[in-house]
Fold this protein.
Amino acid sequence: MSYCGENCLSRHDLGAVVAVSLRCRAWTCPDCADGRKKQLIAQCHRGSPSTFLTLTLRRVPGQQPNIAALTMTRAWRLLRLRIMRRYKLKRLPFAAIMEATKAGWPHLHILLRSVWLDQKWLSEQMSDIADSPIVWIERIDHRARVNAYVAKYCGKAAHKFGTAKRYFFSHDYDLLPKEERDKFKKSLYRWDRQELSLTRYAEALRTLGFDVTFDSQRQFRAARPP
């Protein structure tokens, strides 16, 4: 396993070297958590959601939060299928983020790009699916309100309950063209992994006669003197 910052990626371009620190990208890492949070917020924004939905699972005596989170995830997947059938939808793009309440119980916040959904009907369906009729739904048709909801509910660190996912998206939620999303992934094919931290790799290049300039704590550029 590669721990945060122990390795780096480098790319040689016309005699120069660009290197970036290879992060672990773990939500629990103090160096990476903020970046993960910003990525999640950006992805939620890119879906241009129109509806905010919160599902709350009824507490069962003796049930563990980790099991409740899995039950909540399954309930949403089934509810989504029922919504699509009732409203004759071919698609129902969504972003779902798991949150822990102060009591440590899971809530599922869902951003939807959809027609308006009847709250009473949703409550009846959740009562049938998981004996949990408490459903909150609200239209967010103004961009400022979208920003507020995303910052409030997606800006928090998405909570991890056992094997349940912190967050998950439908494949059609993100409106950024797939070519743009894949651009960075494709660029990684030109990068090499160095079994050195960014600082140690910079020192190694200096011993070879390179001038090294740090652009930030996570990136530097190196080139041989003319």
In short: The chain has two domains: 7-28+184-223, 48-173.
